[in-house]
Each structure stands twice: as structure tokens, then as C-alpha cells.
């Protein structure tokens, strides 16, 4: 047994701090606000949030009477068209065009409109799936849509994970139990503002492999993934008694459009494996012609209506009902941006037009959730910009699952079109602001190295994806440390993606990034260690740029144009196995005195928002929550809080004796001390 390197002394030069937030032990209670007022299951809406919407983002709405002469004239009653009521099934979701009135969807032969809302199971703690789905149903929606992330389900080539928070089947069956239909969007590419658009990073190992094409290497990987995924979907289909009424083929391929054979191939791959429900494509309104495929229903994504919204769609199919597969009621945020906010009244008006003219739609997002761990993607429009940890999206429900002005406006709207009363609204999850806490243990970065897996020794630097680890699948997320002994200074040149801190021994001397690939190293009197710590800040999830998203150091490293050779490379993936090896978890599990020091926080468990007041503009950190989930902060901290859900502690098998949450901070820059929490988000 190695002795633990932990010290009771507090240092902020390099640290990993640990503290507990007990939730259900007895003692003095937290201050918290339960922003609800329940009267017979109804919730009084909160005060509307102030919005600052750019004038160009939501213009004056255009009436759909421009396109459709026959608006709906009666209320809808689909109480007999739910997964719980429909027992004898044969025809599933279909389309019908009689020549009289608008084309429409049918379900088991009955006229049907899709009122969909997006919830991504992988962005919501499993403990809160039911709460979010019940709120979707209570608002008046009849369908939930979700992406299926390949990169999470096959993190290493050939190793599949559909357990815990990735239990797709459990999520779909729970939706059915609640009375919701399901539309699955399994990709293989999904965008969704997640790393590499949901494609596994190990696909980047081979520079000859072309993503999202019929390239042999890519197709072979897709085939093996579908061989594991689709058999799980088959029994969930409508005609098998499940809630899945439609399945999407890929995602927004019209904006990529590199291989005309690709979409027909995916179509056939799904049919060949037994998908029998309605298949559809999803594209931006201007990319339908290049994204649709024969025999598959074309749908569109949009934020606003204008005169030519449906022009391309009508060129592809005039005798099919309209489905807005993504109606964007908000937008994602990137580090350094202000939080995007949209006008609830405009959302209400547009959805009202959809319903009035019998257009099916899916609200993206109904509930955005959180980019746990290193899930976040990035954009590249001349500059790399990572998507923030919060996927609040200014959605109908907040990141924490709270109601918004949009929720109550849509609920009232749906209620006015429904022939039967809507379900009662679930109670809110109370939030708490706990007393400040100070991390009490630390572990310096350089002391961490002894607890990592065996380092890689290489003649030249190796990028993250090609490191010979994880059964040959490389490293997907986190950081990589490149170490080399040097005996002279000069001009250092290295291509580091996305951001690197450069050290001489343990002293930082500068930063490298996409805009700064050179750094002056002072003259040395003795040989010293050159250390380059590179962070992956999220792979681009949209555009052809995904092909070039290798992380770490790509290419050679030189000083005064002379290439350096002989590197020791350490992988810092921030997996739980690493923290267990350091002895951190064992030390935490017996720290009764620490619990006493920070105070007992009450009998009731409440969610909270971590508010690290010590975060500065030059600092980035990773926090691991409840030994299961992690959050990420940027060096551009427009996002000021991290949502901390309260989890069912029975799921924490290694720490089930403690009803508390562990927070581990990985600090890249020296900063302050206390960590605070608040009962309100600051996005």
C-alpha cells in the first residue's frame, strides 16, 4: 500500500480539495426558498424573467394563413391515443392526404398531432427523469424526443454501456408508463452541442477515416454500433407494444452533404435491422433538398417563421403533413457569451400558429439539463469556443427543472385546445443555499503523477486520441501532460489543442493555444523538465471541422526549430479510478471531523447551485459531484454557477454510508478559498 500524499495544510498553488455537503443528517437547517404555491396541484407562475433578445432573432411573427387555408376548428382529445390505452396495435404512426384539407398524421388510423418536447436522458440525472417527464405531460405535450449519444454508449471501441444514466430502455419505458410517445434520434451523428456531435473520439485515430460518409472505416464502426443499439430499440417500437412511434435517420445531414450514398445507406441499415416505425430526416429549412432521402419523411428545424419557411420542404413532399422537428425556443451558450434568452410571448404565439394550422412540432429544448463531465461540444467560426457546462438553453424548464414563463404560457395554450383537463403540475424541487465551505485536503499536480496509470514513452508527442490506452481507443477527454528534459532555452513551438500551460519544472512560464503557438524559454544554467499540460476544451460538434478535432499536441515540438525527442506522456482523464488510486476517497470516507467543521445542513435534501466565489478570469477547474458526475468551468466565467442536483445516495455503492456529496476541484491556477452555494442560478 502506498502512503497517502495528502496533507492537512492548505495550499492553493496546486490542489485538489475535497469537502462534503451533507443533506439529510440532523442539525440546523439550511436557508432555502421553495418557489412554489400549490393549490390542488396547480403552481402559481414566477415573475417573468427580463429578456434581452436581439431584434434580429425574433422578428414579427408571420401568420401561417399565408400557407394553410384551413385552420383547426375543434378541440383535441387524444386520451384514447396514449401508450397506456392503445393495446391492440397494427399500423403505427402514418400520414394521410385525402385531397380535402391539409395532410395529417394518423396513429392507429386516428388523426393525430405530435406535440413533442426534447429531454435528453444523458443530460438529466436518472433520479429526475420521472419528474421531468411528468412536467412534460402536465404541460400538455404528448411526445418526448431524445438523441442517443454514440460516444457515451461506446466510450471505447467494442465496449458498450447502456447502464445507469445511459439506460436508454429504462428512460423510454418510463415515458410510456407516464403516457408519452417517444421519437428516437439515434444518429449516428446527433450534433446536440456535445463533444464531436456524439461521435466517439476514437474515430479520429485514423486520418484516412472520413466521418459521416460511406468511408469503409466509418461504416464498419457504424455497423457494429447499430448491431448493439438497434436490437435494444426493436422491442420498444409501437408495433411491439412500446412507445417509440418514429425514428430519425442521422441529423441535419443537409448542412454537411459530403456523400450522396450516405443517407440511403443509413436508411437501409435501419430497415435491415428491423426498424418498422416511421422514419424521418431533420434539416434546417434551407438544407432540406440536400438532406432528405427517398422513402423517409422530411422535417425541418427552425427558430422563426418567415415567408419561405416551407419552400424547400414543399419541393420534396407536398402530400405529407408538416413536422417541425426542432422548434428552437432558446439557444445554447458558449464560454464568454452572455446567456441567450428568448421572448416567451413570441414562443407562445408561434406554437399557437402551429396548433391552429395543425402542424406537428417538437420543442427544442423542453428541458435542457446539464453537460456533465466533459460532455460539452464546441463551435468553430474562425475561433474555437466551448459550449458551457449548463445546457439550460432558456428552455421551457430550467436546468434545475423549475417552471418558467414559457411553461405556463404553453400549458395555458395547450389547455385551451384540449377537450380534457391537463394533469396536475408536479411540485417543484426545493433549492437551498448552504453555508460556505473550505476544501480541507489538497494534492499537488506533480504528486498526482505517481498515481496515474503507467505513462506513455514516445519518440514524438502523441495526440490524445492516439495514446495507446483504454484498450487501444485512446483518450477522449480531460488533460494530457507532455514531459521532456531540456538543457537550453529559446523559441518553443508547439501546436496545442485547445489550451496548454507550459512549465519549467514546477513553474509556469506561459500559455499556448490556437492563436499562440510560440513561447520564449529563458536560457538555462542546468537541465530542467519542460512540461506542457494540454486541455481538451470540447470538440467541435458541427460542420466539416469535426474531421480535424484531434486534441493534445498535434505534430512536433521544437526549440529554435530543432525538434525535441523522447517524451513521457501522462494521461489525466479525471476518471473515478484515478481518484480511488490516490487514496482521496478513502480519506474522505472517514472524515467525521470535517463534517462537524462545515456544519450539519438539515434533515431535508435540497438541490443547490455551486457558486465558487474564488473563481477568477485566469482560472479553470473541474469539479466532480457525488462521485458520479462532473462539471466544468472555463477561464471565461460568464457562467457563474453550477447546478448541483441531489441524488439518491443509494446509487453511490462505494460511499453509501454517507448522505453527502463530494466535490473535488482540479485547479489550474492559484485562487481563493471558500466555495459558496446559492438557491438561484446565475447564467
Automatic annotation (TrEMBL):
Catalytic activity: Hydrolysis of terminal non-reducing beta-D-galactose residues in beta-D-galactosides
EC number: 3.2.1.23
Protein name: Beta-galactosidase
Group of enzyme by EC: hydrolase
Keywords annotated in UniProt: Glycosidase, Hydrolase
Gene Ontology MF term list: beta-galactosidase activity
Residues of the Glycoside hydrolase 35 catalytic domain: 105-415
Family annotation (Gene3D superfamilies): Galactose-binding domain-like, Glycosidases
SUPFAM superfamilies: (Trans)glycosidases (SSF51445)
Similarity remark: Belongs to the glycosyl hydrolase 35 family.
Organism: Callithrix jacchus
InterPro entries xrefs: BetaGal1-like_ABD1, GH, Gly_Hdrlase_35_cat, Glyco_hydro_35_CS, Glycoside_Hdrlase_35
Biological processes annotated in GO: carbohydrate metabolic process
Superkingdom per UniProt: Eukaryota
